[in-house]
Amino acid sequence: MSAAERNHNPAGNNRPEPLDCCGGLNNVDYSKMDLTLMEELLKHINFHDSSFCVAVIAIIFNPFFWNVVARWEHRTRGLSRLFGSPYLACYALGFVIVLLNVYRSHSMTVAMRAQARWEVMDRTDVFYVGIALMVLGTLLVVSSFLALGFTGTFLGDYFGILMDEKVTGFPFSVTENPMYWGSAANYLGLALIGASPVGLVLTAIVAVAYKVAIRFEGPFTEQIYQERSQRRKHE
């Protein structure tokens, strides 16, 4: 039980019974759920198609690559020594990340075009929802880049290029990781515009990959800034 739950459940004989781990959802009869729509979606996807496999590899590889390289740089300063400057090293890694992301987008587009459209999604309202998502996603990505700058966007913290203070304005006032979720919104919008069921699956994989990356990046970045605060206290 969390602290908040304890505060709202003082000790006493009238304490309500705790919920089960699934929040009471075990009372739902899953056998009566209509899975027809999901089954129809999966029928339109060829999971063995080579373009789909390439796209999945690109999606998973990208955040894995930049996290491994950035942590290695933080630990060894190997890239900074190689390029003679942490800024040049950060620019170089950022350029590679941009190229990898362009290839990821290309591979996802190829996979969407290689597989069947779904008539359920091939509607005008779905198309315009996709357009709206791409506008929103682009807004989040561009505004995040403008707020952080190049080094702030491309892991400059790991190169010792730290920001003076945490950015809290838009779009960080809306979501904590606008660059990631803006990118995911763009891919979802692209899938809806193309009426692509495989695009929906690939977007879900992108979201999961970003979620995992955030779990690694968030605490490590906080640790970097905590280390700076401790150094300043001892100066």
From TrEMBL:
Its membrane topology is listed as:
Multi-pass membrane protein
GO MF terms listed in the record are: phosphatidyl-N-methylethanolamine N-methyltransferase activity; phosphatidylethanolamine N-methyltransferase activity
EC number(s) for this protein?
Answer: 2.1.1.17, 2.1.1.71
| GO biological process per UniProt | methylation; phosphatidylcholine biosynthetic process
* Pfam families membership: PEMT
> Where mainly found?
endoplasmic reticulum
Where are the annotated coiled coils located? none
Where, by residue number, does S-adenosyl-L-methionine bind?
135-137, 217-218
Q: What is this protein called?
A: Phosphatidylethanolamine N-methyltransferase
By sequence similarity, the record places it as follows: Belongs to the class VI-like SAM-binding methyltransferase superfamily. PEMT/PEM2 methyltransferase family.
Please tell me which top-level EC class this enzyme sits in.
Answer: transferase
A single GO CC term, please? mitochondrial membrane
UniProt topological domain (Cytoplasmic) ranges: 104-130, 216-235
Q: Which residue spans are embedded in the membrane without passing through it? A: 50-70
Free-text function comment from the UniProt entry: Catalyzes the three sequential steps of the methylation pathway for the biosynthesis of phosphatidylcholine, a critical and essential component for membrane structure.
Record field: catalytic activity: a 1,2-diacyl-sn-glycero-3-phosphoethanolamine + S-adenosyl-L-methionine = a 1,2-diacyl-sn-glycero-3-phospho-N-methylethanolamine + S-adenosyl-L-homocysteine + H(+); 1,2-di-(9Z,12Z,15Z-octadecatrienoyl)-sn-glycero-3-phospho-N-methylethanolamine + S-adenosyl-L-methionine = 1,2-di-(9Z,12Z,15Z-octadecatrienoyl)-sn-glycero-3-phospho-N,N-dimethylethanolamine + S-adenosyl-L-homocysteine + H(+); 1,2-di-(9Z,12Z-octadecadienoyl)-sn-glycero-3-phospho-N-methylethanolamine + S-adenosyl-L-methionine = 1,2-di-(9Z,12Z-octadecadienoyl)-sn-glycero-3-phospho-N,N-dimethylethanolamine + S-adenosyl-L-homocysteine + H(+); a 1,2-diacyl-sn-glycero-3-phospho-N,N-dimethylethanolamine + S-adenosyl-L-methionine = a 1,2-diacyl-sn-glycero-3-phosphocholine + S-adenosyl-L-homocysteine + H(+)
Q: What is the lineage of its organism?
A: Eukaryota, Metazoa, Chordata, Craniata, Vertebrata
Localization per Swiss-Prot or TrEMBL = Endoplasmic reticulum membrane; Mitochondrion membrane
Pathways per UniProt: Lipid metabolism; Phospholipid metabolism; phosphatidylcholine biosynthesis
**Transmembrane stretches, by residue range?**
47-66, 86-105, 126-150, 187-210
Highest taxon above the source species = Eukaryota
Q: Keywords in alphabetical order, please.
A: Endoplasmic reticulum, Lipid biosynthesis, Lipid metabolism, Membrane, Methyltransferase, Mitochondrion, Phospholipid biosynthesis, Phospholipid metabolism, S-adenosyl-L-methionine, Transferase, Transmembrane, Transmembrane helix
Q: Which stretches face the Lumenal side? A: 1-49, 71-82, 152-194
